Amino acid sequence: MSAPARRQDRLGHFLDLARARRPDYLRDLEELVSIDSGSYSAEGVDEVADWVERRLERIGFDVERVRFPASADGHRTGDALVGRRRGGLPEAEGGRRILLAAHMDTVFEDGTAAARPFRVDGSTAYGPGVSDDKGGLLAGLTALEILGECGADAYAELVFLATPDEEIGSPASRPLIESTARTAHYGLGLECARENGDLVIARKGVADFRLTVTGRAAHAGIEPERGANAALAAAHLTVALQALNGHWDDVTVNVGVVRAGTRANIVCPDAELRIEVRAATTADIRRVTRAIQEAADHPSVPGVTVQVEQLDLCPPMEDTPASRRMLDHARRAAHAAGIELGAAATGGVGDANLIAGTGIPVLDGLGPVGGADHTPQEWLDTTSVPQRVALLADLIVSLGDSST
């Protein structure tokens, strides 16, 4: 039997198993969506973690539960989970370590699940977090369950990472994400697919900056010439920095916050700008960083100085030859199922950015088809669940053995 025919048979078997699990998937999804697990609700996130931990252990994973210390303001983030299952193909013989990543938190406040409970209308499911990311989280667990049932273990190790704070930028879990990713060969992000079914091949990176503008105070009516107006310098900087838009493809620069002065009769001595930069490549983020520094080094108002501070950097998930090869594996499986699979780039960031930042290839959007994330209209196409679960299982098998 030819390789394409064998793959079609394998995918067909995965599809049959995924279709049989669809009622259980919807029941489990309702249970997960009914738990309020906003990023700032540690108790709710931990309840989801309890559920996921039991499921992982049931399908043969060893699970490490990671608790994070409270932040300086006393906020406690929910726990993270790292589940591991050894395969039957050692790394020395071509086995690969595959990381699957999903998040357990949502953007919604406590009480949302009761006010807007899970429901299915026709083939569409609704509810807080149904698409982002409880649908993808559950699809990953279901795919792993199918692989275990089939005895498909031609990989070195499968690692399932469930994080508690993705919706607020993963401040607590970022070191765990990065340390876990550094040992993997491939990263699979379980965010749901785009509304048209596309996977995600690239995500922009984000860099946040604070510019502190220091001038010199003076009486605005008696001796304004003795002052150096930081507000005026900040205004010129705002115009100059906004003008960077359009200089590079897939780069945006936004001066989102401007603060200056305390009284109208004082020449403003202090101002602050907060800037967000989004770019598709690390090289472009560096270019914009240099341009910001160049503008800051030459303020338009004599006597004013400007200090540039980079507050945060979420690396881009770049469209690379290695991630394109992962996409080819996914497309071959989709073709066997009669599906044409596209790939999209997005400006939104997620844990996949942090995984990609460690240097391993990543493919995201491997959950079911969904949309309207972060809104009361958030939805999930339940007819897409069996196909997406089967495609994910097949992709894991294809990537797990480097000889295939």
From TrEMBL:
The molecular function terms in GO held by this entry are: carboxypeptidase activity; metal ion binding
Active-site positions on this chain? D105, E166
Instruction: Please verify whether the record's keywords include Disulfide bond.
Output: no
Residues annotated as domain Peptidase M20 dimerisation: 201-301
Keyword annotations of the record:
Carboxypeptidase, Hydrolase, Metal-binding, Protease, Zinc
Q: Which PROSITE patterns match?
A: ARGE_DAPE_CPG2_1
| Top-rank lineage group of the source organism | Bacteria
Matching InterPro entries: ArgE/DapE_CS, Bact_exopeptidase_dim_dom, Pept_M20_glutamate_carboxypep, Peptidase_M20, Peptidase_M20_dimer, Peptidase_M20A
Co-factor(s): Zn(2+)
Spell out the protein name for this chain: Glutamate carboxypeptidase
The organism is: Streptomyces filamentosus
